Amino acid sequence: MGIEPISDHLAEHMRILFVGYNPSLRSGETGHHYASASNRFYRILDQAGITPRLYKPQEDQDLLQLGYGFTNIVARPTLTAAEITPEEYREGRLILRQKIVTYRPSVVCFVGKGVYEQYSGRRGMSWGVQPEPVVEGVIEYVCPSSSGLVRMKLEEMVDIYRGIKDYSGTEMGN
């Protein structure tokens, strides 16, 4: 179709690898992660003290300098995650596991419970650290999706994301 997948931002030994469902159509158009105007991702990171300031989607590659990478379980941009096929999830699960094994981030932050469910094959998890990681030695941390479609209050989301700092060596402050 018209919109191409966007580039991952990956490096060995990242502090946090953020994993989304897949890029939004806006991200596909711009080539930047979490680019939709309604997405609260960068605001959440700033308010949680994970980043030293509020970043814009156009600066997503700059977060790699802080030790933060980006990828998605499915590369194809869509309007909603409901458009992702079971085959895309199956393939994406294998590709994502290989990225985690290869790059060995300290923490893999799944931006949405559904992302972690598709990756791990598990259901009913709590927010935060998961007890049995798929890739041994990597902390798997589940956060709410930052999509504007999610109805959770921003303050609740920020509190959950703030917990990542306990595991990633992140001490930015606001």
Give me the secondary-structure topology.
Blueprint: E1 16-20, H1 25-30, H2 41-47, E2 68-72, H3 86-103, E3 107-111, H4 113-120, E4 128-129, E5 139-143, H5 154-162, H6 165-168
Parallel strand pairs: 1-2, 1-3, 3-5
Antiparallel strand pairs: 4-5
Describe the structure.
This protein has a five-stranded mixed β-sheet, sandwiched between helices. With 174 residues, it is of the alpha/beta class. It has helices at residues 25-30, 41-47, 86-103, 113-120, 154-162, 165-168; strands at 16-20, 68-72, 107-111, 128-129, 139-143. The protein contains six helices and five strands, in the order E-H-H-E-H-E-H-E-E-H-H. The chain has one domain (16-168): Uracil-DNA Glycosylase, subunit E, CATH 3.40.470. The longest helix is centred in the middle third of the chain and has 18 residues, at 86-103. This is Mismatch-specific DNA-glycosylase. Residues 10-154 form the Uracil-DNA glycosylase-like domain. Keywords: DNA damage, DNA repair, Hydrolase.
Count of individual beta strands: 5
Distance between the termini: 41 Å
Radius of gyration: 15 Å
CATH architecture: 3-Layer(aba) Sandwich
Q: Which terms would index this structure?
A:
174 residues; alpha/beta; Uracil-DNA Glycosylase, subunit E; 5-stranded mixed β-sheet; 6 helices; 30% helix; globular
In short:
The chain is α/β, with parallel strands linked by helices.
